[in-house]
Design goal:
Radius of gyration: 19 Å
CATH architecture: Sandwich
CATH class: Mainly Beta
Number of domains: 1
Order of helices and strands: EEEEEEEEEEEEEEHEEEEEE
CATH topology: Jelly Rolls
Length: 312
Amino acid sequence: MYDPLLSRFQPLNRILIHDVFNTGFNGWMALMPNFCETPDFEEGPSIISKTQLPPVMLSTATYRYPGSHGALSGQYSLKVSTRPIANPYCQIPLAGSIGHAIRRISLHHLKRKYLQFEMWFAYTAEQDKVDGKGKLPGLHETSIRAFGAGWDIQERGERYFSGVRYLNAVDGDLKQKWQFMYPSSKDDRDWAYGTDDYWAVKGIDPFWFGRRYPDGRHDGFIDVPNGHQPLCYNETDCKINWQYLRLLIDTEKREYVELQCQDKTFDLERHPIFLTPPYARIDGLLNPLVWIETDTNRRVFLYIDSVVISQE
C-alpha cells in the first residue's frame, strides 16, 4: 500500500523505525546522566555535566512574526535545542552548549549488512536580538556551530559510534561542510582532555570529546571528501526549510558507504568505522541519535520532522 509519508524516504528492505513526530515523541528523549552514584543516586563523574542538556520537545516551531511554522508532516516536529552559552571552538564545550536526542533500541535481526539513517530536518537560531553587522544583522546563521546524526552501536563484541556532522561555523566563520565520525587522538587520555582512566575512551561520544583546532578540524571527525555544501538557511531566523539527510554504513565490514543531503550524494570511500572495546550490559545496542551545538551565547534549534532507520 502506498504511504505518502514513507514515500519521501529511500529505506532499505527492513524498516526498523519510521517515526513521524506529529504523532508524538516515539521514544526519543534527551540524553541524561547515569544517576547511579552514592549516596543518593547522584550523577556519575563527568567532564561535561549532562544535567545541563536542554529537554527534547515537540514543537510547532513558533516564532515572533509568523506564529507557528508547523512541520513537514502536520503540526509538530521534534525540537532539539541548546542553552545560550558557548565556549570558543577550541575549548571544551560548555555543559548545555550541545543538545541531544536519542532513541534507545536494540538489534533484533542477525542477517544484516547495511544500516541506514534518514531524516527530514530544519535548523535555525533564536530571534533574540539584532546584533550582527552588514546585511541581515539579525540573521544569526553563524550562531549554529554544528549538527549531526548517527548511531551508538555495540554488537559482535565491539562498540562503535558512526555518524556525520555538518560543521556550519567556527567562532563566527562559516565552514558549511560535512564530516564523519572517526577519532584521531593519540590515546584515551588525549581524547578526554588529559584525564586519566576516564569512562569515555577514544572514539566514545565524539560530539563532546576530542581536541578541536582553529580551522575547524576535530580529533573526533574527518572531513567528507568534497564535502562542502551550503544548505538552505533562508533569509531570516523565522523561516525554516525542510531538508533531507541519509547516511548508509556497512555493519558487516564496519565501513562508511555514502552520505546524501538534499540532492547531493557523497562517496565515503568505504572508510573504516573506529571500534572500541565493549561496555558492560549493552550488548545489542542500536541507539540512533541527533545533536546540535551553538557557536555563540544564543540558543539554536534542530527540528526533526521524521526519521527512518532501516537495514538489509
